[in-house]
Write a structure and sequence with these properties.
heterodimer; A: two-stranded antiparallel ribbon; about 0% strand; B: Rossmann fold; Rossmann fold; 6-stranded mixed sheet; about 25% strand; binds adenosine-5'-triphosphate; binds magnesium ion
Chain lengths: ~325, ~500
């Protein structure tokens, strides 16, 4: 059958690798290099080994949470509750260990599972009650943060244990352990998104939930899983956070959702769903982390850092829109 | 100028239009002329470039080179507004409407009337708007409520509203891109009445359709495109159905289909529906489809057949009754249950219900089959490409570029073939098709029928819902007629006449 191919019309002029996704990544890398050049010229400390390893060891929290967020955004949803979930997992872990004498390893796992449970709740509300994901996770954002305060009675608990400290502060051959975990997770989910039917279904669902459903894809189950993954990863970030600070607090990870969404969107993932890559997200995370670090080194006040981040977000999305418009123009002109 | 018009110099002329997408020529030196008061049929296979040509006329696409003359004047349109200002109106192939606005608002989108005086002139005069909308709907003698949201109308009526929208007073040229694809015969007649009326008033019409018999009813001349090139322009009086088809396709198409006897009584029942009922949609429907059989459900659009098939596929919950696959009852509560039971489903509205518009042809074709293409959960891209290429070749799916082109860039007919390919790829045992050849050209239609027959021969059970009587008669072995949600009669193809089918679909019991 395959032999009876009629000769295809002229091959498309556009080169294969020059897809929208690669363009996004490429422009991100360029912005990243520019950013580094700028900071390096402003402060000599920026490029020192010490500073680079600071960046490397503090990137995991945002990085890991961003993986889950990328998946959620690809399906056309959003998860605002990640910061609260990160706080909750730390609080749960420390309470179970300190007050109930549960072994720290088990307590940590339970803390992470608590995050998965919140994710399950998010997913269930979104799919069964059909409440918009923004509203749903905005509600759990508030509920879960409140819960963290209630459980901990607003207290900060010190928490130190050699093995536990290793999660956030240990190094393997000079490389931060948390960074290794983060990169491993990126690798795994990169493959999941790209090469498994689960991953491809997520893009389809984000592209058109109705068509996906009528194509026989178990949309509900996929969404549930995605929110659970997001919850689990956010909770895990919360554990890293506790390990790095050697304390758990209900106030932890405030504003994490904002940073994470910024990074993911910066990386080219569309809020409308159906589009996004983990490579983009990774670069987005690195850029954001570098920006924060550079601004601190330049002794810019933290208030201005917020301003800068907001601008970066607008710039990133605006840039994407312009590129998209341009692309469409090209297309309808037939270039 | 005046003299020009008198001896019938063209109202519109498009000269030497060229257009490429992604470096592939879609229009190659196409010219077209349109006279005042005539209906020009624009014909061609799927992907021949018809829609592209009229989108250029409308200022929606920019041409690479070429010229447009309107009443002898050279014009350039940069956006659809420009064309509109010159009295050109479009009825697009793909519907463009605001689903959450009312019919009134959709009809008067750009011209909602305002009140008088202060502060009235800053507010919309809804009473007058409603009257205006009603008046326009009257043109087509339609009983559509102007206050309902577009979303709540059946697809047919949405199409009609789109048509009505274009029939405004200032229109000089109206372009209709497959306006009748979703209409029932009486509505088509009504539309033709309107078209004749408009022509008598001097309006010129470019009419695109794959229903060739309509051309002989309504058109004065035909212009035929093939692979982006102009092949002929002739008066309708000088052409025959066969000559038109040959010009379009470049070869002869067998008019009569060979009768293949497949399946039938002895074969095993694959799909059985017992007493299925859904309030307000269909009632007490029982039917059987054997392995190797193509069963047709014929009825006017809106007789409950769509809802029925959606229920069999698990997309709508029936109130009562049961569905059996291979003789054992199965609980189908979601489409994925149906898919797992081996049922495939081609819905009517491909744009919204079947296709992931932003994704490539490849991904759309393999959408229901990703599990099978994966080994241990991981995808095998090489195999996937092979499979996709196989369907592209055997169904003749055509596109500018390769299988990585986003499916939204395919012509309507080719999109439809891709949906079909998806289910063939998914290896189903029962295939439910809703109006599978809406917007599909004659050649491709014949390809699709051939495919369906070949599939039936290989043991697939096919349930075909169609309002096209020709289609039903040419591919189905057994035909059920449906009227207001009830099955009114059952026929074997060899023993039925057109009139019997029409009577069954009109609810007359025999
Ligand atoms: N925006 C676009 N980008 C890329 N290719 C396009 C675009 N629009 C159309 N094409 C391609 O141009 C060719 C002609 O398409 P067109 O829609 O004009 O066909 P058509 O004659 O209207 O077919 P149909 O009868 O199926 O509607 C097709 O191969 C199609 O894939
Ligand atoms: Mg078309």
């Amino acid at each position: 059958m395959l032999s009876a191919q009629s000769a295809p019309a002229a091959p498309p002029k556009r080169r294969k690798w020059l897809t929208d996704d690669t363009l996004t990544s490429l422009s991100l890398v360029v912005s990243f290099v520019l950013l580094c050049v700028f900071f390096a010229s402003q402060t000599p400390y920026f490029l020192t080994q010490a500073n680079l390893s600071t960046i490397a060891s503090t990137i995991a929290i945002v990085g890991i949470t961003s993986i889950g967020m990328t998946l959620v955004l690809i399906t056309g949803g959003v998860d605002i509750s990640v910061g609260s979930v990160a706080a909750l997992s730390g609080v749960v872990t420390s309470l179970l260990w300190l007050e109930h004498g549960i072994p720290l390893g088990v307590a940590t796992v339970l803390g992470i599972l608590a995050g998965g449970l919140v994710g399950l709740l998010n997913g269930a509300i979104v799919t069964y009650l059909k409440i918009n994901p923004l509203i749903t996770t905005l509600a759990t954002f508030s509920i879960v943060r409140g819960l963290a305060f209630v459980l901990s009675e607003g207290q900060t608990n010190l928490l130190s244990n050699e093995a536990f400290n290793f999660i956030g502060r240990g190094t393997v051959a000079g490389i931060p352990f948390s960074l290794i975990v983060m990169l491993t997770l990126y690798l795994i989910f990169f493959f999941v998104l790209r090469y498994t039917s689960f991953g491809r279904n997520l893009y389809a669902i984000g592209g058109s939930p109705q068509a996906s459903r009528l194509a026989g894809i178990a949309v509900t189950r996929h969404l549930l899983i995605v929110y659970v993954i997001s919850g689990l990863l956010a909770a895990f970030s919360g554990i890293i956070n506790v390990s790095q600070l050697a304390s758990s607090a209900p106030r932890a990870a405030v504003g994490l959702e904002f940073t994470v969404i910024t990074a993911v969107v910066l990386g080219g993932t569309s809020l409308a769903g159906g589009k996004g890559t983990l490579i983009g997200t990774l670069i987005g995370v690195i850029i954001l982390r570098t920006l924060d670090n550079g601004l601190v080194l330049m002794q810019v006040s933290s208030f201005y850092q917020d301003v800068a981040r907001g601008f970066v977000l607008i710039l990133a999305v605006g840039f994407d829109q312009i590129r998209l418009k341009f692309g469409q123009l090209q297309r309808s002109k037939g270039a | 100028m005046m003299a020009n018009q008198m001896n019938g110099a063209p109202l519109l002329e498009m000269r030497h239009i060229h257009k490429s997408f992604f470096g592939v020529k879609v229009l190659d030196d196409v010219s077209l002329s349109l006279r005042k008061g005539e209906v020009l049929a624009l014909l061609g296979e799927n992907g021949a470039g018809k829609s592209t040509l009229i989108k250029i006329l409308n200022g929606d696409y920019t041409m690479d080179s070429g010229e447009i003359y309107l009443g002898g004047q050279h014009v350039q349109f940069h956006e659809p507004r420009d064309a509109e200002a010159h009295g050109i109106r479009m009825i697009y192939q793909e519907l463009h409407y605001a689903p959450d606005l009312s019919v009134t608002e959709n009809l008067l989108l750009n011209e909602l009337p305002h009140g008088r005086g202060f502060p009235g002139r800053y507010a919309i005069d809804w009473r007058r708007a409603r009257e205006m909308a009603l008046a326009r709907l009257k043109l087509l003698d339609l009983a559509i409520e102007p206050d309902v949201h577009m979303r709540d109308l059946p697809v047919v009526e949405r199409q009609i509203v789109e048509i009505v929208k274009a029939l405004s007073a200032e229109a000089q040229i109206i372009v209709m891109d497959e306006p009748t694809a979703a209409l029932t015969p009486p509505e088509v007649e009504m539309l033709f009445g309107i078209i004749r009326n408009l022509c008598a008033q001097g309006v010129a019409i470019i009419y695109i359709s794959h229903r060739l018999d309509e051309i002989f009813d309504i058109a004065d001349r035909v212009t035929i495109l093939r692979d982006g090139q102009h092949v002929a322009t002739q008066a309708v009086a000088e052409v025959t159905m066969a000559s038109v088809v040959e010009l379009m396709v470049g070869r002869e198409i067998e008019a009569r289909r060979k009768t293949i006897e497949v399946g039938g009584g002895a074969a095993q029942v694959v799909l059985e529906v017992q007493n299925l009922t859904r309030q307000g949609a269909y009632e007490d429907v029982s039917l059987k489809v054997h392995a190797g059989e193509i069963v047709g459900v014929f009825g006017l659009i809106g007789s409950g057949q769509l809802s029925l098939t959606r229920s069999i596929f698990g997309a709508e919950r029936p109130d009562a009754g049961s569905i059996l696959v291979d003789g054992s009852a199965c609980t189908i509560r979601h489409p994925q249950d149906a898919r797992n039971a081996g049922i495939g489903f081609v819905p009517v509205d491909r744009k919204v219900q079947s296709l992931i518009m932003g994704q490539s042809v490849r991904k759309n074709v393999t959408l229901s089959n990703w599990g099978r293409l994966a080994r241990m959960g991981f995808f095998q891209q090489g195999v996937e490409k092979q499979h996709t290429q196989h369907w592209i070749d055997s169904l003749g799916i055509r596109m500018a570029g390769d299988m990585e082109v986003p499916i939204r860039f395919l012509s309507g007919g080719n999109q439809q073939k891709s949906v079909l390919a998806r289910w063939l790829e998914a290896n189903v045992r029962v295939l439910i098709l809703n109006e599978p050849t809406w917007g599909v050209d004659v050649g491709a239609r014949s390809d699709i029928y051939d495919q369906l027959e070949a599939l039936a021969q290989s043991g697939l059970a096919i349930l075909l819902v169609s309002s096209d009587i020709q289609e039903i008669l040419s591919v189905c072995q057994r035909i059920l007629t449906i009227y207001r949600g009830r099955i009114t009669a059952e026929f074997l193809r060899d023993q039925v006449t057109k009139d019997q089918l029409l009577a069954g679909a009109a609810g007359e019991t025999l």
